[in-house]
Amino acid sequence: MARTGRPGLLHEQKAELWQRWKAGETLSDIGRALGKHAASAFGVVAAKGGFSPAPRSRRPGSLSLAEREEVSRGLAEGRALSRIGRDPGRAASTIRREVARNGGRRVYRAARSEERALNCALRPGWHLTMLCADWLPESCRANGHHSRSPGG
Questions:
Q1: How many structural domains comprise the chain?
Q2: How many Å apart are CA 67 and CA 128, to the nearest integer?
Q3: What residue numbers bound the domain in which 37 lies?
Q4: 28: number of Cβ within 10 Å
Q5: What pLDDT, in 10s, does the model give residues 64-111?
Q6: 107, exposed or middle or buried, with CB in 10 Å at 0-12, 13-18, 19+?
Q7: pTM of this prediction exceeds 0.70
Q8: Is the dihedral of CA 40, 42, 50, 48 positive or negative?
Q9: Which residue intervals of 78-136 are DSSP H helices?
Q10: 113 with 82: CB under 8 angstroms?
């Protein structure tokens, strides 16, 4: 489904926003520098409580974008998973799991897999809270998660 409304800030713009915010600039000045309204800057800052997010880092054993592209090229050439994994020094089971969790041999794409990996690595706190509060409270409580909503 297409997104409606005004486009948000790009990743680079958010990085600049936080750099300027840490330097003590006002939201009006930041918005002007980014070519956006101050309310756009306020929305980003307020969502994080005024604290810039910690830089994202990867687990040392995770596949890099370059390795995912190598997997994609190997699949396009019809190579066996064990052979694809041999070049970057990965086990065939690692490559098999990567391909399986991202749609299989026919639909695997490195960029989409990379984006999915980054999104899955985000901390689940907010999503879990929303899940417990609104959608499946019995299931969450059964798994030891407690709702933060007044009714749960």
A1: 3
A2: 31
A3: 11-47
A4: 12
A5: 999 999 999 999 999 999 999 998 899 999 999 999 999 999 999 999
A6: exposed
A7: no
A8: negative
A9: 81-86, 92-101, 110-120, 125-130
A10: no
Nearest residue to 71 (alpha-carbon basis) of 98, 42, 46: 98
Residues 24 and 43: their CA atoms lie apart, in Å, by 17
Identify whether residues 97 and 81 lie together within a single domain: yes
Residue 123, φ and ψ in degrees, nearest 5 = -65, 135
Q: Which two tokens stand for residue 5?
A: 């409304």
Structure tokens at 84: 């694809």
Query: What is residue 36's DSSP assignment?
Result: S
Query: Any idea of the CA torsion for 38, 44, 46, 49, to the nearest 10 degrees?
Result: -140
Structure tokens at 82: 């064990």
Tokens 């706190």, residue located: 125
Instruction: Examine residue 129 and state whether it is found in any structural domain, yes or no.
Output: yes
With 0-12 CB in 10 A as exposed, 13-18 as middle and 19+ as buried, what is 71?
A: buried
Domain assignment present for residue 16? The answer is: yes
pLDDT at 56: 75
